[in-house]
Amino acid sequence: MSWWTPQLAATLWAMFQALVILLAVVVVGAALTVVERRLLGLWQDRYGPNRVGPFGTLQLIADMLKIFFKEDWTPPFASRALFMLAPNLAFASLLLSFVIIPITPGWGVADMHIGLLFFLALAGINVYAVLIGGWASGNKYALLGALRASAQTLSYEVFMGLSLMGVVAMAGSFNLRDIVAAQEGLWFVIPQFLGFVTFLIAGIAVTHRHPFDQPEAEQELADGYHVEYSGMKFGMFFIGEYVGMVLVSALIVTLFFGGWQGPWLPPIVWFALKTSFFLMLFILLRASLPRPRYDRVMSFGWRVCLPLTLVNLLATGAVLLLTGS
Amino acid sequence: MSTDALDRHAPAQSGIDRALGLLDGFREHIEHVQPTLTGLPVLWVRRERIVEILRHLKAPPASFSMLYDLSAVDERLRAHRDGLPAADFTVFYHLLSVDRNEDLIIKVALTGGDPNLPSVTRVFANANWYEREIWDLFGITATGHPHLQRLLMPPTWHGHPLRKDYPARATEFDPYTLTVEGQQTEQEALKFEPEAWGMQRERDGSEFMFLNLGPNHPSAHGAFRIVLQLDGEEIIDCVPDIGYHHRGAEKMAERQTWHSFIPYTDRIDYTGGVMNNLPYVLAVEKLAGIEVPDRVKTVRVMMAEMFRISSHLLFLGTYLQDLGAMSPVFYSFTDRQRAYKVIEGITGFRMHPAWYRIGGLAQDLPVGWQQLVQEFLDWMPPRLREYELAMMRNALVRERTRHVAAFTTTEALEWGVTGPNLRATGCNFDLRKQRPYSGYENFDFEVPLGQHGDVFDRGQLRIEEMRQSLRIIQQCVDHMPAGDYKADHPLTTPPPRERMLQHIETLITHFLQVSWGPVLKPGESLQMVEATKGINSYYLTSDGNNMSYRTRIRTPSFPHLQQIPSLMRGGFVPDMIAHLGSIDFVMADVDR
Questions:
Q1: How many of the other CB atoms lie within 10 Å of CB of B560?
Q2: How far apart are the first and last CA of chain B?
Q3: Do A293 and B397 lie within an 8 Å CB cutoff?
Q4: Which of A27, A152, B427, B581 could be bridged to B319 by S-S, CB 3.0 to 4.6 A?
Q5: Per residue in A85-98, pLDDT tens?
Q6: Distance of CA B410 to the CA centre of its chain
Q7: Are the Cβ atoms of B324 and A210 closer than 8 angstroms?
Q8: Would the CB atoms of B396 and A218 count as touching at under 8 Å?
Q9: Distance from CA of B575 to the nearest CA of A (A)
Q10: Residue B65 domain-assigned?
Q11: Residue finishing a domain among B126, B143, B160
């Protein structure tokens, strides 16, 4: 078996890991749609979907069957190619970001030295999906949603990148494995609390989750940018949003809460637990908050969050210089 | 009209004197002083001077600052018109002075095949929709109206439905068909043309977006359409379009007996349940001369207040939902469920009990009702506190609602705004205090007032109103008078069943009143009540028949929607959604 080299084995193993992570993320994202509805039900004094399978656990399958068999309708007034491209872009850009997440010491897709920058770049591409989808739909509500999305993303990406620079400066690397390793003694959430808060806010904004769901804003824009989408194309936007939630939660865990680190339990369990906590936070936010007006969201981003991240970065830099570490 | 009717409403005479005094300079233009059972002075004036007269009445010292209602009557088939000026159509203006707590009805007689009269939109801004309505439904032209188009009926409609020669039943028409071409014509007719509304399509080389919001939109609260002229997300102007929920309730009233129209009233403000029955049965009782027992009055108040709470809970949930808060609506629906448990236990139905009767109630209170009501009374106060803590004190809610879509008392009166929306501006005008009916004078409660007349005050005030309603219901539980649940009067419909089974005379009356319906003497009566959303009134005209000759249903939501453009110019789309949520309207209450 001369072709069986350690190199090939490593490649195959990496491919296997990548495949498992990909599937896991998609399945978790899809399952979240049901988990969210059950949790909302719990918090809102009602049942939520509880009919399919024991405790509604098979609801996911029913939903998937439904969405697969729905008519995949493209409106005649839409620009076809762009209309098809948008959901793929939305789904792929966030999914690709998982490449950089180190799940456990042994698991992870790629160990890239540009790690964080890769995520920021893909998050930037993600807004094109919304923009293109809203524009290509040929619908005024979709267009308004797309405009809101681009304005919002523009405002929030600026300080999202900056909010992470403190972490990068402390760890001295963009590589997420290095960042996790740097949190051995102290999770970055403590020295980088401002960075954590601003990144959390930006993360919610980037995934268009409530209360930053301005681009969708059901009460105002009747679902905004994806109002013309149906069937699996809508499904990709929909699951894409949940994948985004998983991604942002995983990033928060990795960057501020020591990633897989934790006593007694195996790393994968710690990682899953911490991520679930933030996923739950996302859902709780949706259940509890009203939606601010979108111009306020914008001014909050520029007037509060951006200065905060700058102060945080300057302070981090100053401390690092003074302590000479 | 007989004189004994006037005696029954003696206070009207002093009102008539005062009204005549106020119109001293116009004596020669007053054609007739009509005695009615409305309790209000009713003056007929000449058509030519109507604008001047209304302008004079609006200004001090008369200060009839609100055009409360404006509608018309087709007089051509009316048999009992003794002494009234000759008319084919009558247009009436119901003016209301909040300062003096006094009303005045001005009527104008129109004759000839092409009825018309000068538009009063320059005097009262809210005459706009009312004049469009009488053009739409009666074919009466308001000369000088800025935009005299159909309001409730589709733009392609032929004929004027509330005219007496216009059929009321589907069986009187050819079968309805809609071809593909017909459908296209209808759709074309609904297309919005900015030019028709004096709007520009562009400014400084950049085009405006015309956004068609509704009739199907998550926040339109029913089939309501509003076309927005947008610059970015800023609203330059907007045009509300109503009529998608029009079911011709006023026309139906002319085809239903006095008794069998009661269930239709439930469906006017469909969140108000028996609150809708109240003005109708009170107005009918005025016509019939029925005085109901105290028990009936108290039960009516109790159930009406139950529905006020239920309606306000629906308001609160959807209001917060429109601000983007997802959960409150589920909590408020849980509470409504509790209210419905009580309502269902007492009336047997949930949303549309149609439970009040002419001269009484459908049944007496069931055994054990106190406990049922008390459970609800104990349940609500902590919940209301929770809503305040979780939502009304929330910074995001405050930011979304404070100083948004605010209007002053003067503006409110100009547009005919009533109810909680008027009181949110600080104007203390609650009919339950100002003109107590059905025994409200016996209850101890306060009228909550707002300050800024903004979206926030409109929300907060309704929470406070629910507390006051709970107080009233508590007093009903504690002091429910004993007695009969029906008045002992020949026109009480249906007559008491116990006696019906013993006396042949009562049996015959029962049979006639249920099958044919009670016959009421000719006359006009009117009853205003403080309904869930504002002042609701029924203006009934009887022509001595078992059916109404004309039923005018004045609903609060109609003027509230008409006011929207004046508030929204310069606002953002989310502000308008917040305002729509804070008005608390249902489309059936607008279109009837």
A1: 25
A2: 30
A3: no
A4: B581
A5: 888 888 888 888 88
A6: 20
A7: yes
A8: no
A9: 8
A10: yes
A11: B143
Which residue among B233, B330, B394 sits closest to A290, beta carbon to beta carbon? B394
Question: In this complex, do A290 and B211 lie within 8 Å of one another by their Cβ atoms?
Answer: no
Chain B residue numbers touching A292 (CB-CB < 8 A): 324, 396, 399-400
CB contacts of B394 in chain A (<8 Å) are 289-290
In a domain, B466, yes or no: yes
Q: Which residue of B has its CA nearest to A291?
A: B324
Q: Is A70 on the interface with B (CB under 8 A)?
A: no
* Domain membership of residue A107 as a residue range: 73-323
DSSP tag of B348: S
* The total number of residues written for chain B in this structure: 592
Does residue B219 sit at the A interface (CB-CB below 8 Å)?
yes
Chain B, window 562-591: residues with a beta carbon less than 8 angstroms from a chain A beta carbon = 572-575, 577
Question: From the candidates A143, A150, A208, A219, which should be mutated to test the interface with B, based on the most B CB atoms within 10 A?
Answer: A219
Number of domains in chain B: 2
Q: Answer whether A286 touches B (CB < 8 Å).
A: yes
Residue B349: which CATH number? 1.10.645.10
Q: Which pTM was predicted?
A: 0.87
Model confidence band, residue A217 (pLDDT cutoffs 50, 70, 90): low
Ordered DSSP codes for B420-484:
HHHHTTT----HHHHS--TTGGG--------SS-SHHHHHHHHHHHHHHHHHHHHHHHHTPPPS-
Does some domain include residue A124? Answer: yes
| B124-133 residue pLDDT tens | 989 999 999 9
- The answer on B466 and B320 residing in a single domain is yes
ipTM above 0.85, yes or no: no
Q: Average pLDDT for residues A226-232, to the nearest whole number?
A: 82
* Spatial CB neighbours of B293, under 8 Å, sequence gap ≥ 6: B360, B481, B483, B484, B485, B486, B487
The residue in chain A having the minimum alpha-carbon distance to the alpha carbon of residue B399 is A292
In a domain, B455, yes or no: yes
Judgement on whether residues B271 and B132 belong to the same structural domain of the protein: no
Q: How long a stretch of residues is chain A?
A: 325
- How many cross-chain Cβ pairs, A to B, lie less than 8 Å apart? 82
Contacts of B209 in chain A (CB under 8 A): 140
For residue A54, tell me if it sits in a domain: no
Q: In terms of domains, do B414 and B299 share one?
A: yes
The torsion region of residue A264 among left (phi > 0), alpha (psi -120 to 50) and beta comes to left
Q: Report the interhelical angle of A80-96 vs A231-256 (nearest 10°).
A: 30
pLDDT in tens, B336-359: 999 999 999 999 998 899 899 998
B323 shares contact with chain A (CB less than 8 Å)? yes
Cis preceding-peptide flag for B215 (omega within 30 of 0): yes
Contact A40 B217 (CB under 8 A): no
Output the domain CATH number for residue B68.
Answer: 3.30.460.80
Q: Does A217 touch chain B (CB under 8 A)?
A: yes
In a domain, B442, yes or no: yes
Residues of A in contact with B397 (CB under 8 A): 290
**Whole-number Å distance between alpha carbons of B119 and B360:** 42
Using an 8 Å CB-CB cutoff, list chain B residues near A286. Answer: 326
- Is pLDDT above 60 for A102? yes
Residue A1: the pLDDT is: 60
Closest chain A residue to B212 measured between Cα atoms? Answer: A140
Positions in chain B whose pLDDT score sits under 70: 1-12
Reading phi first (left if > 0) and then psi (alpha if -120 to 50, else beta), residue B360 is in left
Contacts of B398 in chain A (CB under 8 A): none
Computed over every residue of chain A, the mean pLDDT equals 84
Task: Please tell me the predicted confidence (pLDDT) of residue B310.
Answer: 93
Cα separation, B532 vs B462, in Å, equals 10
Single out the residue in B98, B128, B143 at which a domain terminates.
B143
CA atoms within 13 A on the CB side of A235: 17
Structural domains counted in chain A: 1
